[in-house]
Design goal:
alpha+beta, 4-stranded antiparallel sheet, about 400 residues
């Protein structure tokens, strides 16, 4: 199992996380192409080596470019202050080159951001303005991290307890204590602490990314480290380098680690009084909300009615949210659930060149031995259509 561990001893921000992933091997050019598919203009990205307390780290930067007016002069509005509404962000994600799973995850994160902002400011999802977290650099950090973790093939992400810092922080609405209101709301039940440094160490974007991906919080798991990356922040902290450290590797005891990693919740209910057309839309919504598996089976119910048994497999942390979605979108009045372990083969994607173009192949292994290899059907179908 491919494990990615984020060590957040000096907090975390979106640019620090993405810088660490680049330092751990994600190609800058591939990231640039992926971000280009958003079709969002007016910025440039760069990555440079910096020193933080004698430690070499990669600093990822997003620079907004001043708009040019029709007459060739500079347009009004300084760069660095562009903000986007949720509808605009969703449209950019939809036209990106992220995988369907990546798009769904990116949509889910921006919905979480919008829900947090709406709750804090007493607004609605349609009207909320995403302020700091809706800025162009945050959009790049979030979409870039989704791409980078997909490129690395991360199957399990573990995060250290989060150092949030201390003191006060200035936002678009005034001065607030650390953690900022949006950060605190996005953290949920993640373990946090303060090392006493009087600065905002954990940003809303950092909290969002880490809580979205973390399968667990705690110390470094049993793993064989293959890559190490350091992503630099903007601050120069006393004694501590302002960096996020990422470790990328494989689980050492594949059988035991896989069992521990794949603890899942299984929800089930039978439905016999709902328009069957709804089931298709429901499956799409469940996957978009984080479900790992959704499947339907025909069953015979009381009063000899034909019905549908719906089963949803998800991370335990997502059970309540997915259960609420099922209650909201279906006619069921009860859901059963249980937790169990799920063992999976180690998986990775490799690119195979064919006479018609490159095809991604999913390779599955156990204890280093290849047991299964399947080409991605979407790639095969696309090449078949292109070449007849």
């Amino acid at each position: 199992m491919k494990i990615v561990y984020f060590d957040c001893f000096a907090g975390a921000a979106g640019d620090m996380i993405l810088g660490a992933l680049l330092d751990a091997g994600v190609p800058f050019e591939a990231l640039e192409r992926a971000l280009g598919s958003l079709a969002v203009e007016g910025y440039e990205i760069a990555a440079e080596r910096v020193l933080k307390h004698g430690l070499t780290a990669l600093k990822f930067r997003v620079r907004e470019l001043a708009a040019v007016a029709a007459d060739g002069g500079a347009a009004t509005g300084a760069p660095g202050h562009g903000h986007y509404h949720l509808k605009q962000i969703r449209a950019a994600i939809d036209r990106s080159a992220l995988s369907e799973a990546g798009k769904a995850r990116a949509h889910r994160m921006f919905t979480r951001l919008a829900e947090a902002e709406a709750a804090i400011h007493g607004s609605t999802l349609e009207r909320v303005h995403l302020h700091e977290v809706g800025a162009l650099d945050s959009i790049i950090d979030i979409v870039g991290t989704v791409f980078a973790l997909e490129w690395l093939g991360a199957e399990r992400v573990v995060v250290s307890p989060l150092n949030v810092g201390g003191g006060m922080v200035r936002s678009a609405h005034g001065v607030f204590p650390v953690p900022a209101p949006a950060t605190l709301r996005l953290l949920g039940t993640a373990p946090v602490y303060s090392s006493g440094i009087q600065a905002e160490l954990l940003t809303p974007t950092g909290a969002l990314l880490l809580t979205e991906y973390a399968a667990a919080f705690g110390p470094v798991p049993a793993m064989r480290v293959a890559r190490i990356g350091y992503g630099a922040g903007d601050r120069d902290l006393p004694e501590t380098p302002n960096v996020v450290r990422v470790l990328v590797g494989e689980a050492v005891e594949a059988g035991l680690a896989a069992t521990a990693a794949m603890r899942v919740a299984v929800m089930a209910c039978e439905i016999d009084d709902m328009n069957p057309q709804i089931f298709g839309a429901l499956m799409d919504r469940l996957y978009a909300a984080g479900a790992l598996e959704v499947f339907y089976q025909p069953v015979q119910m009381k009063k000899n009615r034909p019905g549908t048994l719906m089963t949803v497999v998800c991370k335990p942390a997502d059970r309540d949210a997915l259960g609420n979605l099922v209650f909201r979108e279906t006619t069921t009045i009860g859901i059963r659930y249980q937790e169990m372990d799920r063992a999976c083969l180690d998986r990775e994607h490799v690119s195979v060149d064919t006479p018609w173009g490159a095809v991604r192949v999913k390779v599955a292994r156990r204890a280093g031995r290849v047991l299964n290899a399947q080409p991605e059907f979407d790639d095969v179908a696309r090449l078949a259509a292109e070449h007849g």
